[in-house]
Design brief:
It is a multi-pass membrane protein. The protein has helices at residues 3-13, 21-25, 35-59, 64-86, 97-102, 105-124. It is mostly helical and 126 residues long.
């Protein structure tokens, strides 16, 4: 266990304040005691990515299967890099790489489509 995780656990044990999930999400040395907390962070990062890409795709204007395929690759790729390289968590604790990769994917895909259609229609409607 690295020293930052040990310090955080000691601070909590000594009555210190527990870090918020978003503070831990931005730190590479965060200790995730609660698995559901980390899965919630994965879920909400996916939703943020969906809104950002939906706006970009609507403004650009990107159409069709190419837009959907690029969204899927970016969404899955960014989250994979986040939990494997940035957070360096043990994927097996969460059910494997596939479970983390698909966490919240369908809701982010639906949100992406809604935002994409709204922005595309609003800007490029003839």
């Amino acid at each position: 266990m690295n020293s930052a995780k040990r310090k955080e656990e000691q601070a909590v044990a000594n009555g210190g304040a527990k870090l918020s999930p978003w503070t831990k999400a931005l730190r590479t040395d965060a200790a995730w005691e609660d698995k559901d907390e980390f899965l919630d962070v994965i879920y909400w990062i996916r939703q943020i990515i969906a809104v950002i890409l939906g706006v970009i795709w609507g403004v650009v204007p990107l159409k069709g299967f190419v837009g959907i395929a690029i969204f899927c690759v970016i969404n899955a790729g960014v989250l994979y890099l986040y939990f494997s390289s940035f957070q360096k968590i043990d994927e097996e604790e969460y059910g494997g790489t596939w479970e983390l990769t698909k966490e919240g994917f369908m809701t982010s895909f639906a949100l992406f489509l809604v935002v994409w259609v709204i922005f595309y229609t609003a800007i490029h409607f003839d």
